[in-house]
Amino acid sequence: MRHRARLTLTTLALIAGTAFAPQAQASGFQLREQSPLSLGNAFAGISAGGGDLTSLYFNPAVMTQYDGVQFTFGGTYVGLSAKINNASGSRTSDLTSLGFNVAPVTGAALSPISGGSSHPNAAISAILPEFNIMYSPTQDLRVGLSVNVPFGLATEYNANWVGRYHALKTDLKTIDIAPSLAYRVSKEFSFGVAFIARRADAELTNGVDYGSALALKVGSGLAAAGLSPVAAPGGNSPVANVAMGAPNAAFGIPGFATPGAWDGAAGLKGGGWGYGFKVGATYQPSQDLRFGLAYNSAMTMTLKGDASFQFPATMPATDLGALNAAGLKNGRGSADLSLPATASLGFDWKTSPSFTLQGEVARTTWSKFKELRVKFDTGAPDSVTDESWKDSTFISLGGTWKTNTPWTFRAGLAFDTSAVDDNHRTPRIPDNDRKWVSVGLSYTLSKKATIDVGYSRLFIADGKMNLSAAGPNQTRGSLTGTIQAEINLFGAGFRYNF
Predict the structure, then answer these.
(1) Percent of the chain, pLDDT > 90?
(2) Which fold has domain 36-497?
(3) Is the per-residue pLDDT at 282 higher than 80?
(4) pLDDT tens-digit series, residues 356-391
(5) Buried b / exposed e across 300-329, counting CB within 10 Å, b at 16+?
(6) N- to C-terminal Cα separation, the chain
(7) Domain ranges in the chain?
(8) Cα-flanking dihedrals φ and ψ of residue 133, to 5°?
(9) pLDDT digits over 429-447, tens only?
(10) d(CA 49, CA 282)
(11) CA pair distance 344, 32, nearest whole angstrom
């Protein structure tokens, strides 16, 4: 039995802050793959126009480059691979703040965490659709609509792997619906704006070490009662007895508060809506040179859903009652998810009748994602995850070759920096710096119809995990290891002008 979660980037507290981590793809968990045509040149120059209406997602002002009614439809297959190697975990937690300070609790008796130290591909591939349409009511005014998937993808791990307390399954789905307007102010300048309505749904699950949760509950109870956990009748430490699974009636300690003895699971399932905007401008000083500048706003989404817990069937009723009393029971939860803003600048330079040079730079403000806090109506304490992400940068350079035939060819290179570091990288987020190598082509079927195809291979540096067992990871334990990831992108689209 599994309990799943659907709160995008939502965490779940287990006594002292056990949390779910968010999943990811691209920079952080952002998806740039919104244009099969521009996939072929690594999205170079996409903010300046890109080559077709799919650039509307990045900059609404580009619509003035097209006339009449324009339509595009396509999708990108994202082939992911994320493998774990040399993973290990320990329950050696900093429990001294709760009165635990003897060797059986803080020492080797609680480590290592059992489970496989390697894991085959945990990433789940997906197809990202895109749709764009534009209408020209006047010579200078454009009205458009785009539908895209800006964040998402999924990972799933075996139930008995060593990092199960940090991640089992993550499945994030988002969709943007964005009506837009663009106006040509002069021959050189155009401006655009779009309104964004975003829906997010997700599933998140992870294993739970209920034995550690009970141990933390015991420690909290002793401290609240003013009792010393290192002084017991007859010279025996109640904490040592807890670690060995022996009851100590004098202190009311459950005999099953044994870290690692009771594995279960927990999850959240929910979703929500968020709203934002895009603004952009293009400047064309000559017929052969064009610049584009765009801003995609930050967005805060309030996500609501159902929290659920799976407990071992053999867990004594007294221990189950202690967990329920602490708020670990089915109920409702909510979280405010802060998504970053992205600013981008691109150029498109026709250096000859047959060749166009393009470039792009984008900055995403992931540094605003400092923590993730979830609140529960069951009485459980807030779950707080320290994210401490950093801003990321995307840079690309590409070219387009037009021939005297129906064929057009593209190629590009890009570099994309990661939003996470070794101390915050989780198995839900197989993210690290990456290099893009891209190729693509278009075939003109007629004056009105064209087919576009693109391919990119993303070479991702091995990511180190170095998660501490302190703070919100007290009941999850530490986790170290290496994530080896790679991405292959295949895009195909159809465009038509009426």
Answers:
(1) 48
(2) Porin (2.40.160)
(3) yes
(4) 999 999 999 988 877 767 777 887 766 666 677 889
(5) ebebebbbbbbbbeebeeebbebbbebbbb
(6) 53
(7) 36-497
(8) -145, 145
(9) 777 899 999 999 999 999 9
(10) 8
(11) 12
Task: Read off the pLDDT of residues 18-46 as tens digits, 9 standing for 90 and up.
Answer: 323 333 344 568 889 999 999 999 999 99
Are 442 and 452 a contacting pair, CB within 8 Å? yes
Q: Give the amino acid at 38.
A: S
pLDDT in tens, 117-152: 999 998 888 889 999 999 999 999 999 999 999 988
Residue 348: partners with Cβ closer than 8 Å, 6 or more residues away: 45, 48, 49, 50, 289, 290, 291, 292, 356, 358
Contact present, 397 and 359 (Cβ < 8 Å): yes
Beta bridge partner(s), residue 490? 77, 455
Q: Which residues contact 253 (CB under 8 A, 6 or more apart)?
A: 218, 222, 238, 241, 242, 247
* Whole-model pTM over 0.70: yes
d(CA 167, CA 161): 10
